[in-house]
């Protein structure tokens, strides 16, 4: 996948994303990259986790698919705004070069301090924990889900793989047991997908699964919670 040519694309909310012509696949929703990320991962994920765990002041996030770093950036902003200390642990099988990410256009889209924060996330080294701000530490790991062995447990999972049409193997039942085993009680799993087989796989693993309204252009998405002990 590393040799696939990627083209910048402006989505409906004015924010950019990457498009892979060979797969006819986007890194984010063409209906609005930022809108989608804010809805799926921040509102239905981070904010929902806070509502479920109002006494917590720290949160460990696991992201499947670092991509352009957009989810990491929006979570770093949310962490400061909500006074929650976040450790954001993200895996990526096909890392984009920092220059490639900058060409997507977020560095021009975000201004001032936001631009600085975004670039810190993109420029920081891989494979080691880096303090990005007072409320946000980041670990970017160059590995695939298939080869990843979890070393800690998480409060929140962002499952942000490419769609099942492009990468069906990332939506099979065997993708989820290790993730769910490492999700803390009261923890939240979110993905933009509403796929029935994924919903049933998560239910079989003991999660309480809801289909909640999706971002613009998508009727529903999966939000799942690991019940408290
Ligand atoms: C939808 S994009 C993620 C977008 C990203 N979260 C963002 O904020 O820009 C999916 C990502 O999953 C990565 N990916 C594909 N196969 C993978 C695998 N087996 N393990 C880990 N990451 C994978 C892709 O390279 C791509 O960056």
Please characterize this protein's 3D structure.
The chain has one domain: Vaccinia Virus protein VP39 (Rossmann fold, 3-Layer(aba) Sandwich). Helices cover 31% and strands 28% of the residues. The chain starts with 5 loop residues before the first strand and ends with a strand. The chain has an eight-stranded mixed β-sheet with strand order 6-7-5-4-8-9-11-10, sandwiched between helices. Strands 1-2-3 form a three-stranded antiparallel β-sheet, with no helix packed on it. It has seven helices and eleven strands. The longest helix is centred in the N-terminal third of the chain and has 20 residues, at 33-52. The chain is α/β, with parallel strands linked by helices and 229 residues long. The structure holds S-adenosylmethionine.
SSE blueprint:
Layout: E1 6-10, E2 16-20, E3 25-26, H1 33-52, E4 58-64, H2 70-82, E5 85-92, H3 98-104, H4 106-109, H5 112-123, E6 130-133, E7 136-142, E8 154-159, H6 177-181, E9 183-191, H7 196-204, E10 208-213, E11 220-225
Parallel strand pairs: 4-5, 4-8, 5-7, 8-9
Antiparallel strand pairs: 1-2, 2-3, 6-7, 9-11, 10-11
Helix pairs in contact: 1-2, 2-5
Residues 27, 64-65, 67-71, 91-94, 144-146, 160-162, 167, 170 line the site of S-adenosylmethionine.
């Amino acid at each position: 996948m590393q040799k696939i040519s990627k083209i910048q694309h402006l989505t409906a909310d004015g924010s950019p994303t990457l498009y892979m012509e060979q797969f006819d696949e986007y890194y984010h929703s063409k209906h609005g990259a930022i809108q989608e990320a804010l809805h799926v991962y921040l509102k239905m994920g981070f904010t929902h986790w806070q509502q479920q765990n109002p006494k917590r002041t720290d949160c460990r996030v696991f992201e499947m698919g670092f991509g352009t770093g957009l989810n990491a950036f929006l979570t770093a902003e949310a962490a400061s705004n909500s006074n929650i200390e976040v450790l954001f642990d993200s895996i990526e099988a096909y890392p984009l070069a920092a220059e490639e990410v900058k060409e997507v256009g977020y560095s021009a889209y975000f201004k001032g301090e936001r631009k600085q924060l975004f670039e810190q996330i993109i420029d920081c080294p891989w494979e080691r924990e880096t303090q990005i701000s007072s409320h946000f530490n980041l670990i970017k790991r160059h590995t695939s889900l298939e080869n990843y062995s979890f070393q800690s447990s998480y409060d929140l999972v962002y499952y942000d793989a490419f769609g099942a049409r492009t990468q069906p193997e990332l939506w099979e039942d065997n993708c989820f047991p290790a993730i769910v085993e490492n999700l803390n009680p009261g923890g939240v799993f979110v993905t933009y997908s509403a796929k029935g087989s994924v919903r049933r796989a998560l239910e079989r693993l003991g999660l309480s699964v809801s289909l909640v309204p999706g971002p613009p252009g998508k009727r529903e998405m999966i939000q799942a919670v690991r019940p408290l002990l």
